[in-house]
Design a protein that fits this description.
Layout (H helix, E strand, L loop, with lengths): L11 E4 L1 H5 L2 H7 L6 E5 H12 L4 H16 L3 E4 L7 H12 L2 E4 L2 H9 L4 E3 L8 H4 L5 E7 L5 E6 L2 E6 L7 H19 E6 L3 E6 L2 E6 L8 E5 L14 H10 L2 E6 L5 H14 L4 E5 L11 E4 L5 H11 L3 E5 L4 H12 L3 E7 L3 H6 L10 H4 L2 E6 L2 E13 L11 E8 L5 E8 L2 E6 L5 H14 L7 E5 L2 E6 L1 H21 L4 E6 L4
Parallel strand pairs: 1-2, 1-4, 2-3, 4-5, 13-17, 13-18, 14-15, 14-16, 16-17, 24-25
Antiparallel strand pairs: 6-7, 6-12, 7-8, 9-10, 10-11, 11-12, 18-19, 19-20, 20-21, 21-22, 23-24
Helix pairs in contact: 2-4, 11-12, 15-16
Length: 514
Protein backbone atom coordinates (compact mmCIF):
# COMPACT_ATOMS: atom_id res chain seq x y z
CA UNK A 1 0.00 0.00 0.00
CA UNK A 2 1.27 3.50 -0.84
CA UNK A 3 1.93 5.59 2.31
CA UNK A 4 1.83 8.99 0.61
CA UNK A 5 -1.22 10.70 -0.84
CA UNK A 6 -0.83 11.30 -4.58
CA UNK A 7 -2.50 14.30 -6.12
CA UNK A 8 -4.15 12.86 -9.23
CA UNK A 9 -3.39 15.79 -11.48
CA UNK A 10 -2.68 15.13 -15.15
CA UNK A 11 -1.24 11.95 -16.59
CA UNK A 12 0.99 9.89 -14.30
CA UNK A 13 3.61 7.36 -15.46
CA UNK A 14 4.98 4.44 -13.45
CA UNK A 15 8.17 3.04 -15.07
CA UNK A 16 9.24 -0.46 -14.05
CA UNK A 17 12.81 -1.50 -13.28
CA UNK A 18 13.67 -2.48 -16.88
CA UNK A 19 12.29 0.80 -18.27
CA UNK A 20 14.59 2.72 -15.92
CA UNK A 21 17.68 0.50 -16.18
CA UNK A 22 17.58 0.09 -19.97
CA UNK A 23 17.28 3.83 -20.57
CA UNK A 24 13.80 3.46 -22.08
CA UNK A 25 12.35 6.02 -19.65
CA UNK A 26 14.97 8.60 -20.66
CA UNK A 27 14.41 7.95 -24.36
CA UNK A 28 10.61 8.26 -24.13
CA UNK A 29 10.97 11.60 -22.34
CA UNK A 30 13.44 12.84 -24.97
CA UNK A 31 11.07 11.74 -27.75
CA UNK A 32 8.20 13.61 -26.11
CA UNK A 33 6.13 10.49 -25.54
CA UNK A 34 6.14 11.09 -21.77
CA UNK A 35 5.03 14.58 -20.72
CA UNK A 36 3.15 13.97 -17.49
CA UNK A 37 4.36 13.20 -13.98
CA UNK A 38 6.93 10.41 -13.60
CA UNK A 39 6.53 8.45 -10.36
CA UNK A 40 9.48 6.27 -9.27
CA UNK A 41 8.34 3.61 -6.82
CA UNK A 42 10.69 2.88 -3.91
CA UNK A 43 10.80 -0.81 -4.90
CA UNK A 44 12.49 0.25 -8.16
CA UNK A 45 15.13 2.15 -6.20
CA UNK A 46 15.66 -0.92 -3.99
CA UNK A 47 16.15 -3.12 -7.07
CA UNK A 48 18.69 -0.69 -8.54
CA UNK A 49 20.53 -0.46 -5.22
CA UNK A 50 20.81 -4.25 -4.90
CA UNK A 51 22.35 -4.47 -8.37
CA UNK A 52 24.80 -1.70 -7.53
CA UNK A 53 25.91 -3.62 -4.44
CA UNK A 54 26.83 -6.53 -6.73
CA UNK A 55 28.89 -4.22 -8.95
CA UNK A 56 26.30 -3.17 -11.57
CA UNK A 57 25.88 0.63 -11.43
CA UNK A 58 24.01 1.07 -14.69
CA UNK A 59 20.64 1.45 -12.99
CA UNK A 60 21.94 4.30 -10.83
CA UNK A 61 23.41 6.07 -13.84
CA UNK A 62 20.20 5.69 -15.85
CA UNK A 63 18.03 6.85 -12.93
CA UNK A 64 20.19 9.97 -12.55
CA UNK A 65 20.06 10.58 -16.30
CA UNK A 66 16.25 10.27 -16.32
CA UNK A 67 15.97 12.73 -13.43
CA UNK A 68 18.13 15.31 -15.26
CA UNK A 69 16.10 14.94 -18.48
CA UNK A 70 12.86 15.38 -16.51
CA UNK A 71 14.25 18.53 -14.87
CA UNK A 72 15.39 19.98 -18.20
CA UNK A 73 12.00 19.29 -19.76
CA UNK A 74 9.92 20.46 -16.83
CA UNK A 75 8.51 16.98 -16.18
CA UNK A 76 7.57 16.34 -12.52
CA UNK A 77 9.81 13.55 -11.17
CA UNK A 78 8.78 12.08 -7.80
CA UNK A 79 9.75 9.22 -5.49
CA UNK A 80 6.96 7.16 -3.89
CA UNK A 81 7.41 5.15 -0.72
CA UNK A 82 5.46 1.90 -1.11
CA UNK A 83 4.91 -1.60 0.26
CA UNK A 84 8.33 -3.29 0.40
CA UNK A 85 6.79 -6.76 0.68
CA UNK A 86 5.69 -6.65 -2.97
CA UNK A 87 7.87 -7.15 -6.01
CA UNK A 88 8.44 -4.01 -8.12
CA UNK A 89 5.93 -5.10 -10.75
CA UNK A 90 3.28 -6.12 -8.24
CA UNK A 91 3.68 -2.79 -6.47
CA UNK A 92 3.36 -0.87 -9.75
CA UNK A 93 0.21 -2.75 -10.78
CA UNK A 94 -1.43 -2.16 -7.40
CA UNK A 95 -0.61 1.55 -7.55
CA UNK A 96 -1.67 1.89 -11.19
CA UNK A 97 -5.07 0.33 -10.47
CA UNK A 98 -5.71 2.78 -7.62
CA UNK A 99 -4.49 5.95 -9.33
CA UNK A 100 -5.12 5.30 -13.02
CA UNK A 101 -1.41 5.70 -13.79
CA UNK A 102 0.23 4.40 -16.96
CA UNK A 103 2.84 1.66 -16.52
CA UNK A 104 5.96 2.13 -18.66
CA UNK A 105 7.74 -1.13 -19.49
CA UNK A 106 10.02 -2.83 -22.00
CA UNK A 107 8.87 -6.30 -20.88
CA UNK A 108 6.26 -7.98 -23.07
CA UNK A 109 4.81 -10.26 -20.40
CA UNK A 110 4.56 -7.46 -17.85
CA UNK A 111 2.74 -5.33 -20.43
CA UNK A 112 0.28 -8.14 -21.23
CA UNK A 113 -0.49 -8.78 -17.54
CA UNK A 114 -1.12 -5.10 -16.90
CA UNK A 115 -3.40 -4.83 -19.95
CA UNK A 116 -5.32 -7.89 -18.82
CA UNK A 117 -6.00 -6.08 -15.52
CA UNK A 118 -7.30 -3.03 -17.37
CA UNK A 119 -4.20 -0.90 -16.73
CA UNK A 120 -3.02 1.45 -19.45
CA UNK A 121 0.47 0.54 -20.63
CA UNK A 122 3.19 2.32 -22.56
CA UNK A 123 5.18 -0.61 -23.95
CA UNK A 124 8.25 -0.11 -26.09
CA UNK A 125 10.87 -2.73 -26.76
CA UNK A 126 14.37 -1.64 -25.80
CA UNK A 127 16.67 -0.66 -28.62
CA UNK A 128 19.82 -2.73 -28.40
CA UNK A 129 22.78 -1.14 -30.12
CA UNK A 130 24.31 -4.59 -30.59
CA UNK A 131 22.10 -7.08 -32.46
CA UNK A 132 22.75 -10.78 -32.24
CA UNK A 133 21.72 -11.45 -35.83
CA UNK A 134 24.37 -9.04 -37.12
CA UNK A 135 27.10 -11.47 -36.07
CA UNK A 136 25.46 -14.37 -37.92
CA UNK A 137 25.10 -12.63 -41.29
CA UNK A 138 27.90 -14.72 -42.73
CA UNK A 139 26.70 -18.28 -43.17
CA UNK A 140 29.77 -20.01 -41.74
CA UNK A 141 29.53 -18.49 -38.25
CA UNK A 142 28.86 -21.30 -35.77
CA UNK A 143 28.77 -19.32 -32.54
CA UNK A 144 29.13 -15.81 -31.11
CA UNK A 145 30.94 -15.02 -27.85
CA UNK A 146 30.32 -11.65 -26.19
CA UNK A 147 31.78 -10.52 -22.87
CA UNK A 148 31.88 -7.13 -21.26
CA UNK A 149 35.06 -5.12 -21.89
CA UNK A 150 36.15 -7.44 -24.71
CA UNK A 151 35.65 -7.20 -28.49
CA UNK A 152 33.08 -9.61 -29.98
CA UNK A 153 34.43 -13.01 -31.01
CA UNK A 154 33.00 -15.65 -33.33
CA UNK A 155 33.69 -19.28 -34.08
CA UNK A 156 33.72 -19.67 -37.85
CA UNK A 157 33.89 -22.78 -40.06
CA UNK A 158 32.44 -26.28 -39.86
CA UNK A 159 32.40 -28.94 -37.11
CA UNK A 160 35.99 -29.91 -36.37
CA UNK A 161 37.37 -27.34 -38.83
CA UNK A 162 36.61 -24.01 -37.17
CA UNK A 163 38.66 -20.97 -36.23
CA UNK A 164 38.17 -18.44 -33.43
CA UNK A 165 38.16 -14.84 -34.65
CA UNK A 166 37.86 -11.41 -33.06
CA UNK A 167 35.33 -9.16 -34.81
CA UNK A 168 36.40 -5.52 -34.77
CA UNK A 169 38.66 -3.72 -32.32
CA UNK A 170 36.12 -2.06 -30.01
CA UNK A 171 35.28 -3.71 -26.73
CA UNK A 172 31.63 -4.08 -25.74
CA UNK A 173 30.52 -2.28 -22.59
CA UNK A 174 28.35 -3.88 -19.94
CA UNK A 175 25.53 -1.52 -20.92
CA UNK A 176 25.62 -2.68 -24.54
CA UNK A 177 25.45 -6.33 -23.53
CA UNK A 178 22.68 -5.60 -20.98
CA UNK A 179 20.61 -4.02 -23.77
CA UNK A 180 21.18 -7.09 -25.91
CA UNK A 181 20.21 -9.40 -23.05
CA UNK A 182 17.00 -7.45 -22.39
CA UNK A 183 16.14 -7.62 -26.10
CA UNK A 184 16.75 -11.39 -26.18
CA UNK A 185 14.62 -12.03 -23.09
CA UNK A 186 11.79 -9.82 -24.28
CA UNK A 187 11.69 -11.52 -27.69
CA UNK A 188 11.62 -14.92 -26.01
CA UNK A 189 8.74 -13.87 -23.74
CA UNK A 190 6.90 -12.42 -26.73
CA UNK A 191 6.73 -15.85 -28.35
CA UNK A 192 9.80 -15.86 -30.59
CA UNK A 193 11.38 -18.50 -28.37
CA UNK A 194 11.36 -19.68 -24.78
CA UNK A 195 13.45 -19.29 -21.65
CA UNK A 196 14.78 -22.70 -20.70
CA UNK A 197 16.17 -21.69 -17.29
CA UNK A 198 16.41 -18.36 -15.51
CA UNK A 199 18.61 -18.37 -12.41
CA UNK A 200 20.31 -15.52 -10.59
CA UNK A 201 23.66 -16.22 -12.23
CA UNK A 202 22.68 -17.80 -15.56
CA UNK A 203 19.89 -17.89 -18.13
CA UNK A 204 19.47 -20.29 -21.05
CA UNK A 205 17.27 -19.17 -23.94
CA UNK A 206 16.18 -20.78 -27.19
CA UNK A 207 15.43 -17.94 -29.61
CA UNK A 208 14.49 -19.25 -33.03
CA UNK A 209 17.45 -21.34 -34.20
CA UNK A 210 19.79 -19.75 -31.64
CA UNK A 211 20.68 -21.37 -28.34
CA UNK A 212 21.80 -18.58 -26.01
CA UNK A 213 23.58 -18.86 -22.67
CA UNK A 214 23.76 -15.73 -20.50
CA UNK A 215 25.95 -15.64 -17.38
CA UNK A 216 26.29 -12.84 -14.82
CA UNK A 217 28.43 -12.04 -11.78
CA UNK A 218 28.97 -13.51 -9.28
CA UNK A 219 28.46 -16.80 -11.18
CA UNK A 220 30.85 -15.54 -13.89
CA UNK A 221 33.50 -12.86 -13.61
CA UNK A 222 31.65 -10.64 -16.07
CA UNK A 223 28.45 -10.42 -18.07
CA UNK A 224 28.76 -12.87 -20.95
CA UNK A 225 26.50 -13.99 -23.81
CA UNK A 226 27.21 -17.09 -25.91
CA UNK A 227 24.94 -17.83 -28.87
CA UNK A 228 25.15 -20.98 -31.00
CA UNK A 229 23.29 -21.86 -34.15
CA UNK A 230 23.34 -24.97 -36.35
CA UNK A 231 25.05 -24.11 -39.63
CA UNK A 232 24.60 -27.53 -41.25
CA UNK A 233 21.43 -29.52 -41.75
CA UNK A 234 22.11 -33.03 -43.00
CA UNK A 235 20.05 -36.10 -43.71
CA UNK A 236 21.34 -39.56 -42.89
CA UNK A 237 21.94 -40.25 -46.57
CA UNK A 238 24.31 -37.26 -46.78
CA UNK A 239 26.81 -39.22 -44.70
CA UNK A 240 27.29 -41.79 -47.47
CA UNK A 241 26.79 -44.88 -45.30
CA UNK A 242 27.22 -48.35 -46.80
CA UNK A 243 23.93 -50.27 -47.09
CA UNK A 244 25.02 -52.61 -44.30
CA UNK A 245 25.07 -49.77 -41.76
CA UNK A 246 21.81 -48.25 -42.97
CA UNK A 247 20.14 -51.65 -42.60
CA UNK A 248 21.43 -51.93 -39.05
CA UNK A 249 20.18 -48.48 -38.08
CA UNK A 250 16.78 -49.16 -39.58
CA UNK A 251 16.17 -52.76 -38.51
CA UNK A 252 18.43 -53.75 -35.64
CA UNK A 253 20.08 -50.91 -33.71
CA UNK A 254 18.02 -49.89 -30.69
CA UNK A 255 20.72 -48.91 -28.21
CA UNK A 256 22.84 -46.34 -30.03
CA UNK A 257 25.60 -44.08 -28.70
CA UNK A 258 26.70 -41.06 -30.74
CA UNK A 259 30.13 -40.09 -29.43
CA UNK A 260 32.72 -37.45 -30.19
CA UNK A 261 34.54 -34.42 -28.88
CA UNK A 262 32.73 -31.05 -28.45
CA UNK A 263 32.00 -29.26 -31.72
CA UNK A 264 32.52 -32.32 -33.94
CA UNK A 265 28.92 -32.62 -35.18
CA UNK A 266 27.30 -35.06 -32.74
CA UNK A 267 24.06 -33.09 -32.45
CA UNK A 268 23.87 -32.63 -36.23
CA UNK A 269 24.06 -36.41 -36.65
CA UNK A 270 21.52 -36.99 -33.84
CA UNK A 271 19.15 -34.60 -35.59
CA UNK A 272 19.60 -36.46 -38.89
CA UNK A 273 18.97 -39.80 -37.17
CA UNK A 274 15.80 -38.49 -35.50
CA UNK A 275 14.46 -37.31 -38.87
CA UNK A 276 15.42 -40.65 -40.44
CA UNK A 277 13.36 -42.58 -37.88
CA UNK A 278 10.51 -40.08 -38.20
CA UNK A 279 10.47 -40.65 -42.00
CA UNK A 280 10.14 -44.39 -41.32
CA UNK A 281 6.91 -43.87 -39.41
CA UNK A 282 8.49 -44.11 -35.96
CA UNK A 283 7.41 -42.10 -32.91
CA UNK A 284 10.43 -40.03 -31.89
CA UNK A 285 10.94 -37.93 -28.76
CA UNK A 286 13.96 -36.21 -27.26
CA UNK A 287 15.46 -35.54 -23.84
CA UNK A 288 17.58 -32.39 -23.94
CA UNK A 289 19.27 -30.02 -21.50
CA UNK A 290 18.71 -27.49 -22.92
CA UNK A 291 16.44 -28.11 -25.93
CA UNK A 292 18.43 -27.06 -28.98
CA UNK A 293 17.85 -29.73 -31.65
CA UNK A 294 16.02 -28.24 -34.64
CA UNK A 295 13.38 -30.89 -35.34
CA UNK A 296 9.93 -31.08 -36.96
CA UNK A 297 6.90 -30.41 -34.78
CA UNK A 298 6.05 -34.13 -34.82
CA UNK A 299 9.00 -34.71 -32.48
CA UNK A 300 8.21 -33.76 -28.87
CA UNK A 301 11.24 -32.37 -27.06
CA UNK A 302 11.41 -32.83 -23.28
CA UNK A 303 13.64 -30.65 -21.13
CA UNK A 304 15.70 -32.32 -18.44
CA UNK A 305 16.24 -28.87 -16.96
CA UNK A 306 12.54 -28.56 -16.15
CA UNK A 307 11.52 -32.17 -15.54
CA UNK A 308 13.40 -34.59 -13.27
CA UNK A 309 14.51 -38.07 -14.34
CA UNK A 310 11.56 -39.84 -12.72
CA UNK A 311 9.02 -37.60 -14.44
CA UNK A 312 10.69 -38.05 -17.84
CA UNK A 313 10.91 -41.81 -17.27
CA UNK A 314 7.21 -42.08 -16.45
CA UNK A 315 6.11 -39.86 -19.35
CA UNK A 316 8.19 -41.76 -21.91
CA UNK A 317 6.99 -45.17 -20.76
CA UNK A 318 3.37 -43.99 -20.91
CA UNK A 319 3.74 -42.29 -24.31
CA UNK A 320 5.61 -45.30 -25.77
CA UNK A 321 7.99 -43.75 -28.31
CA UNK A 322 9.87 -46.00 -30.71
CA UNK A 323 13.05 -43.96 -30.28
CA UNK A 324 14.23 -41.36 -27.78
CA UNK A 325 17.17 -39.07 -28.54
CA UNK A 326 19.06 -38.22 -25.31
CA UNK A 327 21.16 -35.10 -26.01
CA UNK A 328 23.49 -34.93 -24.03
CA UNK A 329 24.28 -37.53 -21.35
CA UNK A 330 26.59 -36.11 -18.68
CA UNK A 331 26.20 -37.50 -15.17
CA UNK A 332 25.40 -40.84 -13.56
CA UNK A 333 21.71 -40.00 -13.37
CA UNK A 334 21.63 -39.52 -17.16
CA UNK A 335 23.32 -42.86 -17.82
CA UNK A 336 20.96 -44.65 -15.44
CA UNK A 337 17.93 -43.04 -17.11
CA UNK A 338 19.19 -44.12 -20.54
CA UNK A 339 19.82 -47.66 -19.25
CA UNK A 340 16.46 -48.00 -17.54
CA UNK A 341 14.52 -46.78 -20.57
CA UNK A 342 16.46 -49.08 -22.90
CA UNK A 343 15.88 -52.11 -20.65
CA UNK A 344 12.18 -51.15 -20.63
CA UNK A 345 12.07 -51.61 -24.40
CA UNK A 346 12.43 -48.01 -25.60
CA UNK A 347 14.84 -47.50 -28.50
CA UNK A 348 17.52 -45.11 -27.23
CA UNK A 349 20.02 -42.83 -28.95
CA UNK A 350 22.44 -41.25 -26.48
CA UNK A 351 24.83 -38.40 -27.27
CA UNK A 352 28.01 -38.37 -25.17
CA UNK A 353 31.30 -36.49 -25.08
CA UNK A 354 34.22 -38.86 -25.69
CA UNK A 355 37.70 -38.65 -27.21
CA UNK A 356 37.46 -42.14 -28.74
CA UNK A 357 34.63 -44.53 -29.54
CA UNK A 358 35.60 -46.99 -26.82
CA UNK A 359 35.69 -44.17 -24.24
CA UNK A 360 31.95 -43.70 -24.77
CA UNK A 361 31.33 -47.34 -23.80
CA UNK A 362 33.68 -47.12 -20.83
CA UNK A 363 31.58 -44.30 -19.37
CA UNK A 364 28.94 -46.96 -18.58
CA UNK A 365 31.41 -49.04 -16.54
CA UNK A 366 30.62 -48.69 -12.86
CA UNK A 367 27.21 -47.27 -13.65
CA UNK A 368 25.69 -50.53 -14.92
CA UNK A 369 26.82 -54.14 -14.62
CA UNK A 370 29.28 -55.10 -17.34
CA UNK A 371 27.15 -57.95 -18.63
CA UNK A 372 24.21 -55.58 -19.12
CA UNK A 373 26.13 -53.20 -21.42
CA UNK A 374 25.45 -55.14 -24.69
CA UNK A 375 21.75 -55.19 -23.80
CA UNK A 376 21.83 -51.41 -23.42
CA UNK A 377 24.27 -50.46 -26.23
CA UNK A 378 24.41 -52.35 -29.50
CA UNK A 379 25.90 -49.68 -31.79
CA UNK A 380 28.43 -46.90 -31.19
CA UNK A 381 28.92 -44.20 -33.85
CA UNK A 382 31.96 -41.97 -33.40
CA UNK A 383 31.84 -38.55 -35.06
CA UNK A 384 34.93 -36.56 -36.01
CA UNK A 385 35.05 -33.38 -38.11
CA UNK A 386 31.37 -33.71 -39.01
CA UNK A 387 31.69 -37.25 -40.42
CA UNK A 388 31.40 -40.81 -39.11
CA UNK A 389 34.88 -42.13 -38.32
CA UNK A 390 34.13 -45.39 -36.54
CA UNK A 391 31.17 -47.71 -35.94
CA UNK A 392 31.26 -50.39 -33.26
CA UNK A 393 28.94 -53.29 -32.57
CA UNK A 394 28.89 -54.89 -29.12
CA UNK A 395 28.13 -58.45 -28.09
CA UNK A 396 28.40 -60.77 -25.09
CA UNK A 397 30.30 -64.05 -25.60
CA UNK A 398 31.72 -66.73 -23.31
CA UNK A 399 35.38 -67.22 -24.12
CA UNK A 400 38.90 -67.07 -22.80
CA UNK A 401 39.72 -63.35 -22.67
CA UNK A 402 42.26 -62.11 -25.16
CA UNK A 403 45.79 -62.53 -23.85
CA UNK A 404 44.94 -65.39 -21.46
CA UNK A 405 45.55 -69.07 -22.19
CA UNK A 406 44.10 -71.23 -19.44
CA UNK A 407 40.74 -72.74 -20.51
CA UNK A 408 39.57 -72.51 -16.90
CA UNK A 409 39.62 -68.71 -17.25
CA UNK A 410 36.76 -68.69 -19.78
CA UNK A 411 34.13 -66.18 -18.72
CA UNK A 412 31.54 -63.74 -20.12
CA UNK A 413 33.38 -61.20 -22.25
CA UNK A 414 32.00 -58.06 -23.90
CA UNK A 415 33.47 -57.99 -27.40
CA UNK A 416 33.63 -54.64 -29.22
CA UNK A 417 33.91 -55.05 -32.99
CA UNK A 418 34.43 -52.76 -35.92
CA UNK A 419 30.97 -53.11 -37.38
CA UNK A 420 31.96 -52.76 -41.02
CA UNK A 421 34.87 -55.23 -40.95
CA UNK A 422 33.65 -57.53 -38.19
CA UNK A 423 37.07 -57.41 -36.54
CA UNK A 424 37.22 -57.39 -32.73
CA UNK A 425 39.07 -54.32 -31.42
CA UNK A 426 38.48 -54.49 -27.66
CA UNK A 427 37.38 -56.97 -25.02
CA UNK A 428 35.90 -56.03 -21.66
CA UNK A 429 35.73 -58.52 -18.80
CA UNK A 430 35.79 -58.80 -15.01
CA UNK A 431 38.84 -60.44 -13.43
CA UNK A 432 38.78 -60.54 -9.65
CA UNK A 433 37.11 -57.30 -8.63
CA UNK A 434 38.43 -55.21 -11.51
CA UNK A 435 37.01 -54.54 -14.97
CA UNK A 436 39.55 -54.71 -17.78
CA UNK A 437 39.31 -53.12 -21.23
CA UNK A 438 41.90 -54.83 -23.42
CA UNK A 439 42.77 -53.91 -27.03
CA UNK A 440 42.63 -56.97 -29.26
CA UNK A 441 45.60 -57.65 -31.51
CA UNK A 442 44.96 -56.81 -35.14
CA UNK A 443 44.43 -59.74 -37.49
CA UNK A 444 47.37 -60.85 -39.56
CA UNK A 445 47.22 -60.65 -43.37
CA UNK A 446 46.67 -64.43 -43.37
CA UNK A 447 43.68 -64.12 -41.05
CA UNK A 448 42.22 -61.32 -43.14
CA UNK A 449 42.70 -63.30 -46.33
CA UNK A 450 40.97 -66.39 -44.99
CA UNK A 451 38.11 -64.29 -43.61
CA UNK A 452 37.62 -62.72 -47.05
CA UNK A 453 37.63 -66.18 -48.62
CA UNK A 454 35.03 -67.78 -46.35
CA UNK A 455 32.85 -64.66 -46.15
CA UNK A 456 30.94 -65.08 -49.44
CA UNK A 457 30.14 -68.69 -48.51
CA UNK A 458 28.98 -68.04 -44.94
CA UNK A 459 27.04 -64.86 -45.74
CA UNK A 460 24.53 -66.90 -47.73
CA UNK A 461 23.27 -68.06 -44.33
CA UNK A 462 24.38 -65.47 -41.74
CA UNK A 463 26.32 -62.23 -41.35
CA UNK A 464 27.01 -63.09 -37.73
CA UNK A 465 30.10 -65.29 -37.74
CA UNK A 466 33.64 -65.16 -36.42
CA UNK A 467 36.83 -66.59 -37.91
CA UNK A 468 39.53 -67.73 -35.48
CA UNK A 469 43.04 -68.89 -36.38
CA UNK A 470 44.73 -71.10 -33.78
CA UNK A 471 48.11 -72.11 -35.18
CA UNK A 472 47.36 -74.46 -38.10
CA UNK A 473 43.72 -74.82 -37.04
CA UNK A 474 40.93 -72.75 -38.62
CA UNK A 475 37.83 -72.41 -36.44
CA UNK A 476 34.57 -70.92 -37.75
CA UNK A 477 32.16 -69.73 -35.04
CA UNK A 478 28.50 -69.43 -36.10
CA UNK A 479 25.17 -68.94 -34.24
CA UNK A 480 23.43 -72.06 -33.05
CA UNK A 481 20.41 -71.45 -35.30
CA UNK A 482 22.51 -71.87 -38.49
CA UNK A 483 25.10 -74.32 -37.14
CA UNK A 484 23.51 -77.47 -38.58
CA UNK A 485 22.85 -76.09 -42.06
CA UNK A 486 26.37 -74.61 -42.37
CA UNK A 487 27.95 -77.85 -41.08
CA UNK A 488 25.97 -79.85 -43.65
CA UNK A 489 26.36 -77.61 -46.66
CA UNK A 490 29.62 -75.73 -46.13
CA UNK A 491 32.08 -77.90 -44.19
CA UNK A 492 33.72 -79.57 -47.22
CA UNK A 493 34.03 -76.27 -49.08
CA UNK A 494 35.50 -74.66 -45.96
CA UNK A 495 37.99 -77.52 -45.65
CA UNK A 496 39.16 -77.03 -49.25
CA UNK A 497 39.56 -73.27 -48.64
CA UNK A 498 41.51 -74.06 -45.45
CA UNK A 499 43.85 -76.55 -47.12
CA UNK A 500 44.68 -74.07 -49.88
CA UNK A 501 45.55 -71.52 -47.16
CA UNK A 502 47.81 -74.05 -45.37
CA UNK A 503 45.55 -75.12 -42.47
CA UNK A 504 45.67 -78.75 -41.34
CA UNK A 505 42.28 -78.70 -39.64
CA UNK A 506 39.04 -76.80 -40.25
CA UNK A 507 36.16 -76.97 -37.76
CA UNK A 508 32.79 -75.28 -37.20
CA UNK A 509 31.77 -74.40 -33.66
CA UNK A 510 28.70 -72.86 -32.08
CA UNK A 511 29.17 -69.23 -31.07
CA UNK A 512 28.66 -69.14 -27.31
CA UNK A 513 26.65 -66.28 -25.88
CA UNK A 514 25.38 -65.32 -22.47
Amino acid sequence: MCRFFIREVGIMYLPDEIAVESGLLSRLMLEGRIKGRVLIHSSIVGYIERKALSGDFRGIRELENARKIAKDRGIPFELLDGDSSLSPREALRELALKTGSIIVTADYVSAMVAKALGIEVLYDRGRAGVKLTDFFKEGDVMSVHLKENLPPRVKRGAPGKWVFETVGDEALSREEIEDLVNDILDRARAGEGFIETDNEGSTIVQLGVYRIVITRPPFSDGLEVTAVRPIVHMSLHDYGFPPKLLRRLERQAEGILIAGAPGMGKSTFAQALAEFYLSRGKIVKTIEAPRDLQLPDEVTQYSKVVGDSQEIHDVLLLSRPDYTIFDEMRDTEDFKLYTDLRLSGVGMVGVVHATTAVDAIQRFIGRVELGVIPSVIDTVIFIRNGGVEKVYSIENVVKIPHGLRDADLARPVVVIRDFLTGEPEYEMYVFGEKTFVIPVKRRTPREKAISNSVGPLLEKYTYNYRVEVDGDNLIIHVPIEVYSIISRRCLRKLERIGRRAGFTKVSIEIMQRT
